Amino acid sequence: MATRDGSPVMDVLPKQTTRAPRARVVVDDSPITLPPSFTTPPPKENALRSELSEPTRRKWPYIVGALVLVAVLIAVGSSYFGTMSITVTRKTSQVSPTSVIQFTVPYTPVQFEDEVSAQTNTKMEASPTTKASGKIIITNASQLTSQDLIVKTRFVAPTGNVYRLTQKVTVPTAKKSGTSMVPGTVTASVEADGVGAKYNAPKGTTLTIPGFAGTSKAKTFSAITDTAIVGGADTATRIVHPSDAEAAFVSLENQLKTVLAEKLAQEKSAVILLPKDPYTISSKSVSPDFGTAAESFEAKVKGGVTAISVSPSDLSTAIAKAVFENFPADMNSLRVDSPESLIVTDTNASTRTATLRIQGDLALTWLPNETRLKEDLQGKKTADIESIFKRFEGIASAEASFTPAWWPKIPGIDHISITYR
After folding, report:
1. Considering the entire predicted model, what is its pTM?
2. Host H or E run for residue 253
């Protein structure tokens, strides 16, 4: 080898020995198959546009399916989570009987007791010139005749002190009650025959009538002090006197009735009815006792009330049968709004039944059966609401609202709420 100018060039590369191949290599002469992209000619313009728009057309099935799914979810959700609110105006009735309407109901006896008290200033003054006074109960054990006692009739205490009636009284005869006799009694006022503290006597002191001494009436007539006889004094002083306590007792009795009535009113689950003369006074007392010198005293009144408790459902059933014909009891019940118009004429302790009579105007409210109303409404179409309401005679009018407002079906019982005007 020489350069361009013909100068020789030395071969500085080492000589390499040619090696034979380890294996024979054979090349297949069959043609090579290429991918379509290499063999297919380029697409024309319209075909390219069609190919590019094809993915968009494939999205529509998914969109439609999603919309259907959303619609199903809304429908199911509306049915499950939807609510119906009903505002009902209930029917009212007034019963004004032109004849006796009477019926019986089961009852439970109710009794309450309480005590009230008040501090009162003394007003009565006793002095060496005032006479002791008080009240006594005169008893006649004879069946034969009543007895008139004139003013100034004398009564004598075990101490020998004499007291006289301040007004004329008539003592009634004894009366038979079953197998026993009940003596006739009358309460009267007496005044001491003299002055001084010695004429003061406690409540419960036995007295005799000297005018009947030696006669048969001495055995059939007797008396006892109903209140302490007080007012006699050896020195001028203010004392606790029955005349001061009487006004306090009247006020306390009214207060006690109010307290007992409030206890009755707490019985919310039942209708409480009062028989004739339900209130009783068991005791009246003062501290310190009558006749004691004091600037003030405490008056106490203890008593109770007896009533009957009737369940609203029993009362509704009894009134419906006594007043209305073919009352729709399966869809409605009655509430008594004026229980004072129901008079308790009799009670049977052995059967626990009471006889009631309607007196005056009895106000009633019709109560639709909520459970039945909800059962009839659930799952129905909103177009059926009016016809369903009309089945319940106790509904005077009603309004219904829905959430969602557009859903055409009424939801289940748990999603229906009812309120009343």
Report:
1. 0.62
2. helix 242-265
